[in-house]
């Protein structure tokens, strides 16, 4: 009976042996943690803006994208061969983003494009973090936050001026 348990224990140990040393464990935790954190920054901004895809969604998208590239790299896949994995991630995120877009028929308005683009950007940041390009991921996140937060104010100001122009008849 003890031989059976020894074999089971040996099998369980070998199944969890994909992290050979502390260096690799640190690398995995750092890359995945960075993806979650950066995705969370974008998600927090969207959550604060009252958007449907917020903190958890962006964190999960970044984490998923990071895992999709980290696991093949851990398995020995060459970076050049990773293009097929990236194509699948990009296509999948495209479908997820498309679900965030709503077209209102009568008003001919489209909502959710920025949310969709944010999900797409979050996946790209997750890919960068998963591939060990943390500096690129951080810079990309800062740029995305600039676009989302700062340029929202610029858009609001432009829209306000447009509304005022339409409302006020102007000089006679």
Write up this protein.
With 172 residues, the protein is mainly alpha-helical. The protein has one domain (29-167). It is built from 6 helices and 2 strands, in the order H-H-H-H-E-E-H-H. A two-stranded antiparallel ribbon has the order 1-2. The model has no long low-confidence stretch (mean pLDDT 87).
Helix/strand layout:
Elements: H1 2-15, H2 22-48, H3 55-74, H4 83-98, E1 102-104, E2 109-111, H5 113-130, H6 134-167
Antiparallel strand pairs: 1-2
Helix pairs in contact: 2-3, 2-5, 2-6, 3-4, 3-5, 4-5, 5-6
Domain count: 1
The structural class is mainly alpha
Shape by Cα distribution: elongated
What portion of residues belong to β-strands?
Answer: under 5%
Mean pLDDT metric:
87
- Number of helix segments? 6
Largest β-sheet summary = 2 strands, antiparallel
- Give the H and E element order: HHHHEEHH
- Helix % is over 70%
Unreliable residue stretches: none
Distance between the termini: 99 Å
Q: If strands are numbered along the chain, what order do they take across the biggest sheet?
A: 1-2
Topology, number of strands: 2
| Rg measurement, Å | 22 Å
Quick recap:
This protein has 172 residues and is mostly helical. The protein is 75% helix and 3% strand.
């Amino acid at each position: 009976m003890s031989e059976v348990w020894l074999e089971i224990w040996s099998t369980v140990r070998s199944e969890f042996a994909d992290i050979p040393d502390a260096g690799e464990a640190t690398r995995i935790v750092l890359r995945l943690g960075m993806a979650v954190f950066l995705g969370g920054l974008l998600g927090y901004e969207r959550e604060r803006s009252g958007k449907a895809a917020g903190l958890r969604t962006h964190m999960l998208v970044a984490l998923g994208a990071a895992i999709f590239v980290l696991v093949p790299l851990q398995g020995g896949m060459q970076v050049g061969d990773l293009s097929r994995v990236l194509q699948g991630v990009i296509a999948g995120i495209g479908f997820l983003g498309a679900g965030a877009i709503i077209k209102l028929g009568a008003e001919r308005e489209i909502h959710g494009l920025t949310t969709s683009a944010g999900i797409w950007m979050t996946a790209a940041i997750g890919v960068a973090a998963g591939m060990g390009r943390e500096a690129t991921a951080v810079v990309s996140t800062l740029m995305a936050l600039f676009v989302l937060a700062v340029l929202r104010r610029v858009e609001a100001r432009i829209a306000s001026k447009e509304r005022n122009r339409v409302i006020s008849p102007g000089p006679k």
